Amino acid sequence: MSDLAPLLQGFFTDKLMRHRQASAHTIAAYRDTFKLLLTFAEQRLGRHPVQLRVADLDAPTIGAFLQHLEVTRGNSVTTRNARLAAIRSFFRYAVNRAPDAAAVIQRVLAIPPKRFDRAVVTFLTKAETDAVVAAPDRTTWAGRRDHALLLTAIHTGLRVSELTGLRLQDVHLDTGPHLRCRGKGRKDRCTPLTAVTVKVLRKWLRERGGDGGDPLFPTRRGTPLSRDAVEQLVAKHAKTAAESCPSLTGKHVTPHTLRHSTAMALLHAGVDVSVIALWLGHESTETTQIYLHADLSIKERALARTALPGSPPGRYTAPDSLLAFLEAL
To answer: Which residues belong to the active site?
Structure first.
């Protein structure tokens, strides 16, 4: 056995599980990264993963792997950077445990994340979210479950992993109705519920039954919905909603789109950014700033307040079609 295998095993069992007490999602993401990397290295170097040494995973190999992720597997830059972060975390663990490979490790640690353009977030208007919530067929059990799930997602802004992780005991519908969930980074938080959501959840809980530890939104077999299942049902109901709400046509609606829509609805209601960050479970308000950039109406109101006295209100309009063409370039 080479020096890589025991180091990698120690990284997962000692650093991630014992010391960092990493979540199951983090461990799964790191595991997938190294499965991909070791498979790539095996094909590139012609040696089985158990025979690989730390020195075999040098900077050129890691660089080729990152290129493989983007070009061959079609991964986004964000995914590429997340894989690199997992690799760098392992090499920081290995630097004091494999002194013979210290030079190789330092060169890998020097690989920077790739810069990328941040897209403006996609969100739904109130009319669009109302259409999505109304889309499920509530004459069926699955339709009533989906209706309750979509309403909960849109009014709370929970991540898809938080939605699928909800248990019956996490729902509190008495005075001060709220949901308790364990979010990213194993942080527990409470999210308040609107009166409409409380009414729908009361009906769903009566129909759902079960014990406190059972999933709030189960499959027919009683198991928690998977991330893929939630993504599919959101896409399905968004497609149905587009028939009555044409503005949804062509929009790629995901569970995260619903989360963005919650944030934008709070922002339009005048809720402070720091409160929105707490509501969504963001580590800092810097993450929440993306919604300020996405909301053109806020910028237009700011522009209106800075208009010179006596100047006509509204947007600037080019006085000539040729100038308008040049302005649009």
So the answer is: 159, 184, 256, 259, 282, 291
Q: pTM higher than 0.85 for the full model? A: no
- Outline which parts of the chain fall under CATH 1.10.443.10: 126-301
Are the C-beta atoms of 295 and 267 separated by less than 8 Å?
yes
Strand partners, 179: 171, 191
Return all residues near 4 (Cβ < 8 A) that are at least 6 apart: 49, 52, 53, 54, 56, 57
The CATH T-level fold of domain 4-109 is DNA polymerase; domain 1 (1.10.150)
Q: What is the pLDDT of residues 194-209, one digit of tens each?
A: 899 999 999 999 999 8
The rounded distance, in Å, linking the Cα atoms of 77 and 120 is: 16
- 26 by Cβ neighbours in 10 Å (0-12 / 13-18 / 19+) ranks as middle
CATH number for the segment(s) 126-301 = 1.10.443.10
DSSP class of residue 191 equals: E
